[in-house]
């Protein structure tokens, strides 16, 4: 339920070339910022999914847990706000693009 409406499906689309480049940039940014971060992996589903299904996997490998956890948290926000991935909610009152985190714009 979102804004009082049932969501039936989430459709993820991507500008793949830009998104792959951005994932690589994010990975390098995090490794520079968090000195104990050894590696970082980002995987995002680009497909039609049902609400509640897993769509994003971010894995951080670190010498200590603090840097790995902090890098994963920051990466999540960067993926949500700085990549070429868009989400369309198909719900009981129409179809809405989800932009800038939680803003919904009705699909024309």
Descriptive terms for the model:
108 residues, alpha+beta, Aldehyde Oxidoreductase, domain 3, five-stranded antiparallel sheet, 2 helices, 33% helix, elongated
List the helices and strands and how they pair.
Layout: E1 7-14, H1 16-33, E2 37-44, E3 48-49, E4 56-62, H2 65-82, E5 85-91, E6 94-99, E7 103-106
Antiparallel strand pairs: 1-3, 1-5, 2-4, 5-6, 6-7
Q: Mean pLDDT, rounded to whole units?
A: 94
CATH-assigned fold name: Aldehyde Oxidoreductase, domain 3
CATH architecture: Alpha-Beta Complex
Q: Roughly what percent helix?
A: 25-40%
Report the portion of residues in β strands.
35-45%
- Stretches where pLDDT is under 50 for at least 5 consecutive residues are none
Return Rg in Å. Answer: 16 Å
Just give the CATH class: Alpha Beta
CATH superfamily: Molybdopterin biosynthesis MoaE subunit
- In total, the number of strands is 7
Mind explaining what this structure looks like?
- The protein has 108 residues and is an alpha+beta fold.
- It has a single domain, classed as Molybdopterin biosynthesis MoaE subunit (Aldehyde Oxidoreductase, domain 3).
- Helix content is 33%, strand content 39%.
- A 5-stranded antiparallel β-sheet has the order 3-1-5-6-7, covered by helices on one side. The chain has a two-stranded antiparallel sheet with strand order 2-4.
- Helix 1 runs antiparallel to helix 2.
- The mean pLDDT is 94.
């Amino acid at each position: 339920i979102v804004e009082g409406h049932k969501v039936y499906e989430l459709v993820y689309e991507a500008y793949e070339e830009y998104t792959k480049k951005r994932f690589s940039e994010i990975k390098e940014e995090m490794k520079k910022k968090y000195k104990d971060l050894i590696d970082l992996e980002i995987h995002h589903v680009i497909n039609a999914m049902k609400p509640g299904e897993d769509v994003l996997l971010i894995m951080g490998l670190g010498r200590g847990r603090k840097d790995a956890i902090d890098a994963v948290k920051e990466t999540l926000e960067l993926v949500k706000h700085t990549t070429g991935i868009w989400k369309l909610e198909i719900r009981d009152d129409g179809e809405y693009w989800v932009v800038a985190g939680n803003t919904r714009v009705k699909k024309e």
